[in-house]
Amino acid sequence: MVLCGVGEVSTAGPQASRTGSLRGTDRKRNAEPKNEQDRNIFTILGHDGKKLYENIVEATEEFNSNYCIGEGGYGTVYKAVMPTEQVVAVKKLHRSQTEKLSDFKAFEKEVCVLANIRHRNIVKMYGFCSHTKHSFLVYEFIERGSLRKIISSEEQAIEFDWTKRLNVVKGVGGALSYLHHSCSPPIIHRDITSNNILLDWEYEARVSDFGTARLLMPDSSKYWTSFAGTFGYTAPELAYTMKVTEKCDVYSFGVVTIEVMTGRHPGDLISALLSPGSSSSSSMPPIAQHALLKDVLDHRISLPKKGAAEGVVHMMKIALACLHANPQSRPTMEKISFELTTKWPPLPKAFCTIRLGDLFS
Predict the structure, then answer these.
(1) Looking at the DSSP assignment, which residues form a beta bridge with residue 90?
(2) Which ranges of the chain does DSSP label H, i.e. alpha helix?
(3) Are 264 and 336 in contact (CB under 8 A)?
(4) How far is residue 360's CA from residue 219's CA, in Å, rounded to a whole number?
(5) Is 199 helix (H, G, I), strand (E, B) or coil?
(6) Which of 33, 112, 256, 264 maximizes the CB count within 10 A of its CB?
């Protein structure tokens, strides 16, 4: 059986593909793509799911490792060049995941959520196929790959200057604000990491991988679930409460923001800065309180100049506020996005003299 989406239902005999449907105005919007590339993609996905399946398998040579561009907890991602010469990313679900799709309910729910998301900083999902042999999701291909890959490369990190880094943080903030405050019901990503943020040729951020996303229903203040996410990015309260709220994404956003600024995962820095329950520099260890901000930034690029320096200080302050031990004391992504897109406040003193303790004031 081949099950494909997204678009109108089509049948053509016993081996016909079934195409997943969308609700409301989004069905019309998807039926009439805005540009030629989307039109070609949707022609394939919307009208011949069986052919799409065959094209993907052929383009990846039956998911040969040579086409692999990433690994995740829910699947392996491959690059596929379609017959129309369009390039797509194909997330082949692990067998353990496909075994859970016997009734396709959870799978279709995820697909409908993904297909209805429309934001410039969120990866577009084009469709899906489910077969007894392979099941996969089809996304737009983002050229530069993951934020983690860029930060981890000495050569690419040098090209990733402060202007680009500040823009990436703003993009991710805008995407999460959209998910939390513009979607109904709100969407919690639950796995915001540098590996799940992709960058295009212009270094524009795209939030990806909603395999662990869950909907937060409007009549509930929390969602109880088993652990999902990536250690080192997950909010501390998940270790003992399993209460997933938007503030879990806020915490992860704070970790990623500091990672962008320092060029490495900030686990040790976070431990040094934030003792349990701390919310000000007075509770910080003296060595951390008096450390200079410039000494923890990514040394592979020169220190930020005036305009960028204001942005770095402002974003580091926001990031630290996101890491508050009390979820209710963390800002909302709506507020964060607003703060990121307004004029940055002037520096209180020379950039090179700003200490980490100053970021809590």
Answers:
(1) 78, 138
(2) 24-31, 36-47, 49-59, 95-98, 105-115, 147-152, 154-159, 162-181, 246-262, 267-273, 286-289, 306-322, 333-341
(3) no
(4) 34
(5) strand
(6) 256
Buried b (16+ CB within 10 A) or exposed e, 55-84: bbbebbeebeeebebbebebbbbbbbebee
**Cis peptide leading into 236, omega within 30 of 0?**
no
Query: CB of 52 within 8 A of CB of 44?
Result: yes
CB 158 within 8 A of CB 301: yes
Residue 358's pLDDT band (boundaries 50, 70, 90)? very high
pLDDT digits (tens, 9 = 90+) for 85-132: 999 999 898 776 566 555 466 566 667 766 778 899 999 888 778 777
How far apart, in whole angstroms, are the C-alpha atoms of residue 327 and residue 329? 5
Tokens of 264: 């490495």
Q: List the end-to-end C-alpha distance of the chain, in Å, as a whole number.
A: 60
| Average pLDDT in the chain | 79
Q: Determine if the peptide bond prior to 6 is cis (ω within 30°).
A: yes
Q: Is the pLDDT reported for residue 17 higher than 50?
A: no
Return the structure tokens found at 173.
Answer: 């903030």
Catalytic pick from 191, 209, 249, 298? Answer: 191
Residue with tokens 């970790």: 255
Mean pLDDT for 186-204 is 93
- Which one, of 331, 177, 161, lies nearest residue 254 by Cα? 331
Residue 202: the pLDDT is: 96
Please determine, for residue 287, whether its predicted confidence score (pLDDT) is greater than 50.
yes
Residue 288 has pLDDT above 80, yes or no: no
The single residue listed with the structure tokens 């503030």 is 247
Q: What is the CA radius of gyration of the chain?
A: 22
pLDDT at 296 over 90: yes
Q: Which two tokens stand for residue 266?
A: 């900030």
CA of residue 323 relative to chain centroid, distance: 18
* Residue 161 annotated in active site: no
How many contiguous H segments (helices) and E segments (strands) does the chain have? 13, 14
pLDDT of 43 > 50? The answer is no
Read off the amino acid at residue 237: E
Residue with tokens 């209805």: 116
Q: Characterize the bridge pairing of strands 87-93 and 18-19.
A: unpaired
